[in-house]
Amino acid sequence: EFMRACWDIEEVQAKGIQHLASFVKEKSAFPCLLGCTEVITLAMKTHIDSLALQVEGCTLLLEILSQALEQGVMMALDESVASCLLHTVRKHSENEEFLSMLCTLLMMASASEVAAENLREAGIIPDLLSILRRFLHNAEMCFSCCAVLWSLAVSENNADQAVLESAVPVTSAVLQEHLQNGVVAESACSALWALALQGCLTDSDYEPTAALLLDALRMNPERAVLVRNGCLALASLVRLSETAALAILLDPKGSGVELIQEEYHLHLDEPGVAEALCLLVNEMVQYDEVMLDMRSQKMEKLLSEIKLQFPFS
């Protein structure tokens, strides 16, 4: 109440945020802190030029969101909070260290469908793409932004087709830059999967994107989630075009079909991986020429193995 009453006095807001932060470790205070997000973001929005206050506010929001996720509480940040966070992103778009923290906050917030929708409606996608272009070298930021992109792109009521289409080359650039960083590559593969599902790729994207996803699988074979999402992304591409299916078969770095078989044997106990592989194979056999090639590479044998391994799935 004191912070609301003195909303225009920066020192009051700073002290208020610091005082609220002192309760973070007290479990009994958590339900009360959940109701403080609006007053914290109002302080940040009102005193947008104060970097110190932005950092303290952002740190506190991160703490509250972290605790909420740990306790299985889904925090749906409302439109005013989403708008405020976007305002902060734009004002401090050159400050890499602070922006990295802010992107982590956005990633955690976007786990809620309501919050993701509010961020999307606030128009955050172009800002995320701008951050990725400017800080392509920053693995932590790339991971967070791709995770937010995935959350926004999987939304069913997407009216941002043109904006999402512009995300394809940027997300591909992230994957290319961080192929050997499993965490970032996993996040980028997930974003590409969501973009492919939304039909955001053009004819010229199918072949290079398929090759890039195969590279991600080769570089990170042990990461089950990456393998699953990479295969789902490939399946979405193959559904759209035979070009993608042929790119998997004829990849100059080695047969994509052999790679699929190797990945399955690496993740024998992962039903999610097996399911994604089956979905990819199912899309590929829709094309006669591709099916003949897969048959020659003994894909039927692998499918029989999967059927035996998961008889009740």
TrEMBL record:
EC number: 2.7.11.1
Coiled-coil region list: none
Organism listed in the record: Donacobius atricapilla
Catalytic activity: L-seryl-[protein] + ATP = O-phospho-L-seryl-[protein] + ADP + H(+); L-threonyl-[protein] + ATP = O-phospho-L-threonyl-[protein] + ADP + H(+)
InterPro entries: ARM-like, ARM-type_fold
UniProtKB keywords: ATP-binding, Kinase, Nucleotide-binding, Serine/threonine-protein kinase, Transferase
Catalytic class of the enzyme: transferase
Statement: the UniProt record of this protein carries the keyword Nucleotide-binding: yes
Recorded superkingdom: Eukaryota
Name under which the protein is recorded: Serine/threonine kinase-like domain-containing protein STKLD1
PANTHER family listed in its UniProt record: SERINE/THREONINE PROTEIN KINASE, SERINE_THREONINE KINASE LIKE DOMAIN CONTAINING 1
GO terms of molecular function: ATP binding; protein serine/threonine kinase activity
Gene that encodes the chain: Stkld1_1
